[in-house]
């Protein structure tokens, strides 16, 4: 199918590295009512097929020439008529597309205004893009900047030297980052000196817990009042919090964003009531969609299974992420998907994947393996079938995995296996 035949409701998978043209195409597609599906270009062919099967894209773009051709054919301008279809993996290990559907003109305007009003996007903004644009947050910040008349700077694959040079040369006003980015920048600046950061008015971080010492240094290093944290997911956004609020309420991820209400259920799961433009379904999985939503007196609310509490002033504190989730360098990795991939290798009888603290990445992916496959075999197989963030960095050999009486994996007992002689 060529670009000329795309129509409202069509889906276009983007499997190319991020760039200015990438963001321009995402905006042009959405203005035409066509849904971009941003995906990691490092995905293996097996991963691509598994993810795209329920999404059924009308067009798959895998190189910059094709991207440019589609962008040239569209030439659409105007408000986005929906949100990109970003993909998230559920606890079953099967990736799901998060779909908002085509929005009414009023809801489309509200979607853009909400981000503009919260983050203050303006024609004077220069957004420095640190994270891959197939992730939802960096793409959202880049699109919001362009819609407000600002510009973006995309240095490419994250490298502290390139980012520092971009800060010096481009004088950015905003950037979204994950704690690993900040940690690596500070380590580089300890060696070469901290650049002039006075151009920044907004430095927003999310994606993984930020260690308190790193948070304090972030506040001290960047201009006063410029640093924020927010809590959200591919499915939707929950909170936003100035760092000054965090200082007054240590550990919080903020209060509900405007237009939202957050509550907890009896098990501590967080539920968020959202306006119509922020509602979604999981493509091809009505059962999972039904599990994510419930009716409340304030309107439909969704959960992603995160557990937390809300203090007397309305500030949300996370007590834990989804049970099995590993967050490494701000990237979500679901253990079951990695386990399923490892089990496909001859010589692997069983595998259990878990997280361990890591000073650089926040957490690292580890795997306990039952079987005769060598570490070299495991690493070679992982390179062939898993994107880089999902590949275990540590393997531990065990005779048996810890199981419940009903045969379910006791993932909470896996980290102790590393301490065995």
The total tally of domains equals: 2
Distance linking N and C termini: 58 Å
Q: Given this structure, which CATH class of the largest domain is correct?
A: Alpha Beta
Q: Please work out how many helical segments DSSP would assign.
A: 12
What name is given to the CATH topology of the largest domain?
A: Rossmann fold
What's the count of strands?
Answer: 24
Main sheet overview: 7 strands, mixed
Kindly name the structural category: alpha/beta
Physical arrangement of strands within the biggest beta sheet: 7-6-8-9-10-11-12
Tell me the radius of gyration.
22 Å
The overall average pLDDT, rounded, is 91
Observed structural traits:
GMP Synthetase, Chain A, domain 3, Rossmann fold, 421 residues, alpha/beta, 24 strands, 30% helix
In short:
The strands form seven sheets. The protein has a seven-stranded mixed sheet, with helices on both faces. The protein has a four-stranded antiparallel sheet with strand order 13-14-17-16. Strands 2-1-3 form a three-stranded parallel sheet.
